[in-house]
Every structure is written in C-alpha cells, then in structure tokens.
Write a structure and sequence with these properties.
Residues 185-362 form the Peptidase M16 C-terminal domain. It holds the Pfam family Peptidase_M16. With 436 residues, this protein is an alpha+beta fold. The protein folds into two domains: 20-224, Metalloenzyme, LuxS/M16 peptidase-like (Cytochrome Bc1 Complex, Chain A, domain 1), CATH 3.30.830.10; 247-435, Metalloenzyme, LuxS/M16 peptidase-like (Cytochrome Bc1 Complex, Chain A, domain 1), CATH 3.30.830. Helices cover 44% and strands 19% of the residues. The strands form two sheets. The protein has a six-stranded mixed β-sheet with strand order 1-2-6-3-5-4, with helices on both faces. Strands 7-11-8-10-9 form a five-stranded mixed β-sheet, sandwiched between helices. Strand 4 (92-97) and strand 5 (102-109) form a beta hairpin.
Length: 436
C-alpha cells in the first residue's frame, strides 16, 4: 500500500503544468490558447455563461433547448449539414448544458483549425432560429426527457431534491425544463433568448492542441472580431434563507420497485474552500468499495443494494446528497440511521493519517486525470475562467485540496451536515401503478 501511495504521488508530482495565454477581443470575447503539439489534433470550444438558472420561471428548459437548437444550421451552414461537415473532415463535436453554463466543442485534425473556428463563429454570428428548427428540436428534447427522466428508474431523483431545497433560486427547476413551457414558447421568445445570451461578451473561446499561435490569433480576429458586442447582462442575485429544521418530502416514481431514502444538504458555492472540503468528505464516505458507507452498509452489514454520497458543485450554491436503497427486510429509516452514524463519526473524530494520505493521493490522481486529455484541459480552462473567474486555478486548485487538514474535514462536516439543515426525501414506488 505504501508503495502504491508513493507511486501515485510520484505520477501527480510530474503532472505537467498547463501553459496558456489569454486575451480579449474588442467585442468582449475572452480567448484562451493552450498549445500542445503532442498529438495532431485541435479543439475549438466555446462556453457561454448561460444555463438553466438564467431562464424565465415560466419558460424553463430554454438553455438546454439551445444546446440542441444551435446545431440546426446557420446562414452559411445549411440545415442538417453541421454534423456532416464535422464528420466529413475527420472531426467529432458535442455540447452540454448545466444550470450555470452551456458548452460547445469540436475536435478536428490540426489542419482543420480554421474550419472549427469558422463553425463556432457561425453559431454565434449567424444562427438560423426558425419554426422548423424549433419544432424539430422540441420533439428531440421530449424524447430525451422520456428516455432520461420520465421512463428512467430514479430519473427524477435530483430534480425532486432541487425542487424541495430551493425556494427562490432558479436551481429549483430541472435543467431539462418543462415540456409545457417549451410548447407554449413563441419563436420570438427563442430569438430573444439567443439575442440576450449568445453574445461574445458572455462567452469564452478556448483553442487547445496542435496549432500555430500567430495563425490562430489571425483567424480568431477574422472570424470572431466582426461579431457585435451585446448589451451587458444584468443578473439577479437569489439568496436562500438558511434551512433550520428538517424539510420532508415524498415522491412516487412509477418506474421503481425499491424505495430510496435521500438526505440532502444545501452547501456554499463551488468557488469556496468549504466546497472543496465537502468534495473530500464525499470521497471519504462513498468513493469506491473501500469507502466508509459502502464498506459498512453494503459489504459488512449487507443492508443496502446501493449507497452513496456526492457533492453537486455549482456557481451559486451546492448540494450535498446521500442516498440509499435498502436490501431485503431493511428499511430506508435504518439506512438513514447508519448514514447519520457515519456523519457523526466524521464530525467528532479525525480521519486516520492513513485514510487521509489515501484521500490526498486520490485527489492528486483526479487532478492529473482531469488534465490528461486535450478535451479535459479545454473544458477546465473555460470553466475556471467563466465560472470561477480565475483561469490560473487549472494549475493551482490542487494546492487548495493539498492544504486541507484532517481538522478542517471534521469542522466542515460539523458546519453543514446536521439533521436540522437538510431535506429528507422518501423516494418511493408509485402507490397506484395504474397511473403509469
């Protein structure tokens, strides 16, 4: 074990520093360049500071909808041609949406950098947002919701946690949003959303991989420079009142036979030191088969089919979620008691030196792995700029984790993970299957 730990620290110690340069165009687009000639590929990616939290409460799902809609085509890329151009040039592309941001990227052979830049500039400058595109993507999003949420066992689990944990903040609705809202939306509303948020001064462009810096700058200016700056976005601040007594909720899922118990705590922004400590606490409790919850409740006591804890890190608030599915005659309440016992142990006893060393090694490895691919680096650079306000964190965030102490782990557990600060959600099989 000691040798494994030494090897793991050795690999982390040799992790390459991520070099980058950054600058702004006159229209406010922030540009980050990361040169890595180790493979003949290049990634062009744009992250927009718009997510589900920026939506009108009566029009939820817009940010995720745009993730689909903006592949429909542009003034110079015909409808249905986007994917063909990418694959025809040996590339791959994708996009994803969170409550805080939307991210688009292409990975091409390095001789297609100009193509990638042109395509992303087209998405920003000349999107075609028309009724046929809206209608087409409406069906696509409905199918995705049916597949991932409505017909998926436990598919509504996070949505129910958010709905009950946030009273005023837009985190209270699901990222995929409401199909009724999307159906009710007019074409003009979609166009207005695009005009407000898809502007250069609300985005960061990252180019990473094998490219010539001077040439990249020239093309970036050529393709993105002419795009007009948009009006500065006024963002509202939403402050949640602290939770001071246990919240209780129940949700019936027609897709399950086994109930789940969920305990969720509201936690601070991912930008805070405490959020990073909670990441480490989550690892102690449920990362892998040697973690405390798994070893005790699944392995030793054989009380649960599944048990877990995870930290949902977001820009404004986070969530710390524990869940369990009982096995056999065991009840959800007995699982909750076992989980609570482990939290109390974290709040009252320091984790052992050996466990602490394992934990540090794990985070060193995660850090190395997150920057092991050009795609990972590009997304990290964009996120650190857009959501954390500090690109340098790509190299220094690991120092924050390294500086966390055993005492701090105990104190943060005491500060946030208390019974009067949480939601208990009984996630149960539908009482009336006929409703399904």
């Amino acid at each position: 074990m000691a040798m494994g730990a030494a090897l793991s620290l050795g690999s982390a110690a040799t992790a390459q520093k991520v070099n980058f340069e950054e600058y702004d165009l006159d229209n406010g687009l922030h540009v980050i360049l990361h040169h890595d000639p180790s493979a003949p590929t290049v990634i062009t990616s744009v992250m927009y500071h718009v997510g589900a939290k920026d939506e009108n409460p009566e029009r939820t799902g817009f940010a995720h909808f745009f993730e689909h809609l903006l592949f429909e085509g542009t003034q110079n890329i015909k409808r249905g041609e986007w994917m063909k151009i990418v694959t025809g040039n040996g590339g791959v592309n994708n996009a994803n949406t969170s409550d805080d941001r939307t991210y688009y990227y292409e990975v091409f052979p390095s001789n297609s950098l100009e193509l990638g830049l042109w395509m992303e500039s087209e998405r920003l400058m000349h999107p075609v947002i028309n009724q046929i595109g809206v209608d087409t993507q409406n069906e696509v999003v409905k199918e995705e919701k049916r597949l991932r949420v409505d017909n998926q066992p436990y598919g509504n689990f996070i949505a129910q946690v958010k709905k009950n944990m946030f009273k005023v903040h837009p985190y209270r609705w699901a990222t995929i949003g409401s199909m009724e809202h999307l159906d009710a939306a007019t074409l003009e509303e979609f166009q207005a959303f695009n005009k407000k948020f898809y502007i250069p001064n609300n985005a960061v462009l990252v180019v990473a991989g094998d490219f010539d810096g001077a040439q990249a700058r020239k093309w970036i200016k050529q393709y993105f420079g002419p795009i007009k700056k948009g009006p500065a976005i006024q963002r509202e601040t939403f402050t949640e009142a602290p939770i001071t007594q246990t919240l209780k909720a129940e949700y019936e899922d027609p897709n399950i036979q086994i109930p789940a118990i969920v305990a969720a705590y509201r936690t601070p922004s991912m930008k805070t030191r405490d959020a990073r400590v909670l990441d480490m606490i989550s690892s102690v409790l449920s990362d892998g088969k040697s973690s405390r919850l798994y070893k005790k409740i699944v392995d030793d006591k054989k009380m649960a089919l599944q048990i877990g804890a995870f930290n949902v890190s977001q820009e404004d608030y986070g969530l710390y979620v524990l869940y369990g599915l009982p096995l056999g005659q065991n009840t959800t309440q007995s699982l909750l008691q076992e989980m609570d016992d482990e939290i109390v142990k974290l709040q009252t006893e320091l984790i052992s030196e050996r466990d602490f060393e394992k934990l540090q090694n794990k985070f060193e490895n995660q850090y190395v792995n997150s920057n092991a691919s050009i795609e990972g680096i590009a997304e990290n650079l964009a996120s650190y700029y857009l959501l954390y306000g500090d690109v340098k964190l790509i190299n220094s965030e690991i120092d924050i984790y390294r500086s966390v102490t055993r005492e701090e782990i105990r104190e943060v557990a005491k500060k946030y993970l208390n019974p009067n600060q949480r939601l208990i959600l009984d996630y149960i099989p539908s009482k009336d299957k006929a409703q399904n």
